[in-house]
Specification:
heterodimer, A: about 60 residues, B: OB fold (Dihydrolipoamide Acetyltransferase, E2P), Rossmann fold, five-stranded mixed beta barrel, five-stranded parallel sheet
């Protein structure tokens, strides 16, 4: 199952947090940056997704 | 109005009476008493009247004055009413204009004013008023259970994946919600259709909530604007309980902004309209995109900063490795080394001096106990002693020697007088060979070399012939 938008945003925020940590090494930063950019793109794609989907439940259940 | 009516009626009566013979003239007080008697008819005493409150006034004395009115076929009927302060105290609701009420009391004539009024001892709301009272009762019960407590309000998820909407499948509500959500955020809407008004609407609404609650992240319970009666179902305890016990947060949007139902009070979020509820339910796509752009910038800048500081570190290291700097470092270290050496040497000297002085001290102390020293100290003394003895000895020897020398001189004189010297002078000589005095011719052979000693010297001679005396 694809990740929820919320999970993607959560991961992105964690990456930002790590990148703003002065203890992070340069190599790690570069990897984080690449991961972060992938997440940003995924989030943008998600937001660009088509119209809202609507389902109507039956009256009986 | 009433007074004028009465006057008109009285005039008519008077006119009739003037036309009749033997008109009867009545005094005001008589008429007033007659009216009072008529009004005090049992059919107007201790009765219930139902009607709508109009012209409500609360007098500063605490008495309540108003009218009960009713419109039938466009014709309005009004009865003046009063509730004395003593009875007003026991009312269990606050009467106001427009309320439908049932009131219990008696019609009474007020002679000083020439007016009658319905004097009320008990009054209850009926219709909408009655419903308001019911709602008020429910509200108290729910409040006592803590259903409206702010502590139990949950925040809706920021990014819901599925949104349940409990409303009519045909109204404008679902349409509005759908429009707003599709514009803002890609979420899935699950509509749980329900009746929103009518006698059993409350049960239907509660069922619709329960039906959808396990499938979604948040629920919007919505209804468009309507009359107080239209929204009544949303006050019902079974709807409110479904909201309170719902496992996911509930956003209520019932009626217009001014309409507050118990469902609104109990919901986690109360929105003024269904569109507003939808806005509160999902984030705005545009602001999310802005936030993403911001995050993208932030991580890019962070990386750039890190790269820059890495470059600075590198420059710093390169600078530290440069030859002038290294030379400077070496010089500093050399100086430090020299300093250290000096200090060590100074330290060593000090140590040596101290060692020598202590050695000298020890030596001194040792020498103080050395037998040789004793001896040396005493040696001169002994030398003196020896010299003295020696002096004394040599003096004795000298004396003896002189005595011996004197004796020898005398002996030598004797010897000289009696020795070979005189013989030599007399012409005798002494022959010797190799230090041996030759005393006989037998000792001589021709060719033998001999030394002849004379008085004033010696001569070597060779024997040429030996002649023995015949006698021999």
């Amino acid at each position: 199952m694809t990740k929820k938008y919320e999970e993607l945003i959560g991961e992105l925020k964690e990456i930002v947090r790590k990148m703003e940590d002065s203890n992070t090494s340069l190599d790690e930063m570069i990897t984080l940056y690449e991961q972060g950019m992938v997440l940003v793109r995924q989030c943008e794609d998600r937001l660009a997704e088509a119209e809202v989907k609507i389902t109507e439940l039956g009256r009986e259940s | 109005m009433k007074i004028i009516d009465q006057v008109i009626m009285d005039q008519a009566t008077l006119d009739n009476w003037t036309k009749k013979e033997g008109p009867v003239t009545l005094r005001v007080s008589e008429v007033s008493r007659m009216i009072a008697r008529l009004l005090e008819d049992t059919s107007l005493q201790n009765i219930w009247i139902t009607g709508e409150i109009t012209n409500f006034k609360r007098h500063s004395s605490g008495h309540l004055y108003f009218s009960l009115s009713e419109q039938v076929a466009g014709k309005e009927s009004v009865v003046s009413c009063a509730i004395w302060k003593s009875a007003a105290r026991y009312l269990d609701f606050t009467p106001d204009d427009g309320m439908e009420v049932r009131a219990y009391g008696s019609i009474s004539h007020y002679e000083p004013g020439g007016r009658y009024s319905f004097q009320i001892t008990q009054m209850r709301p009926s219709g909408a008023g009655e419903r308001a009272l019911l709602i008020e009762g429910w509200r108290r019960e729910m409040a006592a259970k803590g259903w409206f407590s702010l502590d139990r309000k949950r925040s809706p998820p920021k990014y819901p994946v599925r949104i349940g909407v409990v409303t009519s499948s045909t109204g404008a509500v679902i349409h509005d919600i759908r429009n707003v959500i599709s514009k803002r955020f890609p979420a899935e809407i699950i509509l749980s259709p329900t009746m929103v008004q009518g006698a059993s609407a409350h049960e239907d609404i509660a069922r619709a909530i329960i039906r959808v609650q396990d499938m979604v992240d948040v629920i919007i319970v919505g209804r468009g604007g309507g009359s107080y009666e239209d929204l009544f179902a949303f006050n019902h305890p079974c709807v409110v309980e479904a909201i309170v016990t719902c496992p996911v947060p509930v956003i209520a949007a019932i009626g217009h902004e001014v309409d507050i139902t118990l469902a609104d009070l109990a919901a986690d979020v109360s929105a003024s309209t269904p569109s507003h509820a939808a806005e509160q339910c999902v984030p705005d796509r545009e602001s999310e995109l802005d936030a993403l752009t911001h995050l993208r910038k932030r991580i890019f800048l962070q990386l750039m900063n890190r790269l820059e500081s890495a470059q600075e570190d590198l420059n710093g290291i390169r600078d530290r490795l440069s030859s002038p700097r290294l030379l400077r470092e070496v010089r500093i270290r050399q100086e430090a080394l020299a300093d250290l050496t000096d200090r060590m040497e100074r330290g060593a000297h000090g140590l040596k001096d101290r060692a020598q002085s202590s050695l000298a001290e020890i030596r001194g102390r040792l020498e103080g106990r050395n037998p040789l020293v004793f001896m040396r100290r005493e040696l001169p003394e002994r030398k003196n002693f020896l010299a003295e003895i020696k002096g004394r000895l040599s003096c004795a020897v000298q004396v003896r020697l002189q005595a011996e020398r004197a004796k020898l001189t005398s002996l030598s004189a004797i010897l000289k007088a009696r020795g070979p010297e005189a013989l030599f002078q007399a012409g005798y000589c002494m022959v010797s060979s190799a230090g041996t005095v030759i005393r006989s011719c037998n000792e001589l052979t021709p060719g033998k070399t001999v030394t002849i000693r004379l008085t004033d010297g010696t001569a070597d001679a060779a024997i040429t012939q030996v002649y023995h005396d015949k006698k021999v």
